Amino acid sequence: MHKRTLWTSVSIAAAAVVAAGALAVPLLGSTPAAPGATPTSPSASAAAIPAVPSVSAATLAALPEAQYSAVIAGLVPVEHTVTEDTVFHLRADAPLFGADRHTAVARFASKDFLQQPTTVVGLRREGAWELVLTPARRQLPSAAGVSGAAAQTSAWVPAASLTRVSTPSSRVVISTEDQTVSIVSASGAVQQRFSAGVGTADTPTPTGVTGYLEQRYVDPSQGTGDHPIQLTSLHSAAADEPYGGHDGGLIGMHWNAATSGAVSHGCVRLDADAVAAVNALPLGTLVTVE
């Protein structure tokens, strides 16, 4: 959906990011384990895990910011679903690394486009690294061809740059076939279920992937009244800008009078009760589309 207010906010935030403090990442061996860290993957041997390279403040500042409208080729596509995560904030701006973990390809800003602490969703700890989801794209659908573009990306971040916030106890599951949005417990039990409008055949809601609740805000100019728009980290896999504008083809969950059928540009339309239920979940809550 179109994010006029959001786009303006990002322009303001960009200047703040440049001025933000940078993180010089220490080498592996001098990096302490973060309190409450995600357990190290038992399958990853210490010898196979690359050391965390040192990144200077100048190099970090020159990296592209992994934010919702960015397209960064070095990110790692995520094309599967996830059921568990850990939510972090950043101690300062931090470098993001691709699959080889040798060269930084992007950076996370410690503050998001609303000048609030950036929500970082961690999936797996390996030594001094955390595999995290990002809100940026790896490739535009128009450039992806028949293979399609990933709706979600990930990257590796030095664990020393993270501060643990929480482990969400629930997640959101969107069914495009049933046209429902469910809030599901950690055990898999459905706690609440609501009807939902989803994307059309030409602008479908991406499926078979998990993102997260990135941010929320109220913008009556988008026809959503005083109901907070629930912005996810997911993007359209079918069109660069399904709604027009410059919002990166974001997938949001928001209020609309029509809450059933294949009716949207990819976003998920909800009634007031459903928006309130999702709004009660913490940022960083996983959002899976089936």
The largest pleated sheet is described as:
8 strands, mixed
Strand portion: 25-35%
Shape: globular
Number of helices: 4
Round the Cα radius of gyration to an integer and report it: 18 Å
Report the order of strands and helices.
Answer: HHEEEEEEHEEEEEEEEEEEHE
Helix fraction by DSSP (H/I, runs of at least 4): 10-25%
The strands making up the biggest β-sheet line up spatially as 11-10-9-18-13-14-15-17
Task: Please specify the SSE layout and strand pairing.
Elements: H1 4-19, H2 57-62, E1 76-78, E2 86-90, E3 94-97, E4 104-108, E5 120-126, E6 129-134, H3 141-144, E7 152-158, E8 162-166, E9 170-175, E10 180-185, E11 190-195, E12 198-199, E13 209-217, E14 229-235, E15 250-255, E16 262-264, E17 268-270, H4 272-279, E18 286-289
Parallel strand pairs: 9-18, 12-16, 15-17
Antiparallel strand pairs: 1-7, 2-5, 2-8, 3-4, 5-6, 6-7, 9-10, 10-11, 13-14, 13-18, 14-15
Would you kindly provide a written description of the structure presented here, covering whatever features stand out?
A hairpin with a 4-residue loop joins strand 9 and strand 10. 12% of the residues lie in helices and 32% in strands. The longest helix is centred in the first third of the chain and has 16 residues, at 4-19. With 290 residues, it is mainly beta.
